[in-house]
């Protein structure tokens, strides 16, 4: 009896298959890579072996996911969602309060009582809204309250607070704040903050204070803008120090200026009379 081999196992062939087998040749091949052979223990087809080898290689190349520790960031992003509504709510609260410090601080503490972290973004937006509305007393109260909580100690907050002191005629408080900022943030004071302080003293006609701030500005190698240079030069002129006035103008003012001529912006050389 003839046998066919599939996976090295022997099966009896039908009568029709016997007539087709001649010698040791393969009678016919199945469509799945198997061959029907005459004798048992015949090796399977080469195609089956290649398929098995390719499958085994694919299994070996499958990447193994390593189990590692989850990375945790040391910082936490502040969520600004809803901060605009919180800011408007804060503005509405402080606008309806009397001017007493204890009352204002008490309501501000209630505003922040149920927050998991200090709503710094909302408070900063509220300060900008109050500044646009020129509510300088409320700006001072909110900014001082923020600083008392250890929040918002930035150059932007200091600039807004100095402007509010200037508009509310609180020069002494502005000078105290400036001295604190100067000693605390000695090497990181921005040009804008220097210009703000010089503008404050210029607004209240205090040329000696302008010269003091300008001296600190030069010591820290902060170059003033042209508007600040004019105020410093005017302060030297009021103090009768015209030689220093000319020196400051010559050192910091640009040699060129821009004017509009026939609808165009033209650069022309600056004369000494233009610097006064």
From TrEMBL:
Lineage: superkingdom: Eukaryota
- Taxonomic path: Eukaryota, Viridiplantae, Streptophyta, Embryophyta, Tracheophyta
Recorded hits in PANTHER family, A to Z, give: OS01G0757700 PROTEIN (PTHR46782), OS07G0545900 PROTEIN (PTHR46782:SF2)
Q: Where is this region: Disordered?
A: 60-80
What protein name does the entry list? Pentatricopeptide repeat-containing protein
Q: Which residues cross the membrane?
A: none
């Amino acid at each position: 009896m003839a046998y066919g081999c599939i996976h090295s196992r022997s099966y009896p062939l039908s009568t029709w298959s016997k007539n087709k087998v001649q010698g040791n040749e393969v009678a016919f091949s199945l469509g799945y890579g198997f061959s029907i052979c005459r004798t048992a223990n015949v090796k399977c087809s080469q195609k089956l072996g290649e398929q098995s080898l390719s499958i085994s290689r694919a299994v070996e190349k499958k990447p193994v996911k390593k189990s590692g520790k989850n990375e945790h960031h040391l910082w936490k992003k502040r969520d600004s969602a809803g901060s605009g509504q919180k800011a408007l709510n804060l503005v509405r609260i402080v606008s309806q309060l009397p001017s007493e410090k204890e009352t204002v601080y008490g309501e501000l503490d209630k505003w922040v009582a149920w927050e998991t972290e200090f709503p710094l973004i909302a408070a900063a937006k509220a300060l900008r809204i109050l500044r646009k509305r020129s509510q300088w007393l409320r700006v001072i109260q909110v900014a001082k309250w923020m600083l008392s909580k250890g929040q918002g100690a930035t150059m932007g907050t200091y600039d807004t607070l100095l402007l509010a002191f200037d508009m509310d005629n609180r020069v002494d408080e502005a000078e105290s704040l400036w001295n604190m900022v100067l000693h605390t943030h000695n090497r990181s004071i921005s040009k804008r903050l220097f210009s703000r302080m010089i503008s404050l003293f210029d607004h209240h006609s205090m040329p000696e204070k302008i010269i003091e701030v300008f001296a600190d500005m030069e010591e820290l190698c902060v170059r003033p803008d042209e508007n600040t240079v004019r105020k410093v030069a005017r302060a030297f002129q009021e103090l009768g120090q015209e030689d220093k006035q000319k020196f400051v103008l010559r050192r910091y003012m640009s040699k060129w200026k821009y004017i509009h001529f026939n609808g165009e912006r033209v650069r022309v050389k600056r004369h000494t009379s233009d610097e006064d």
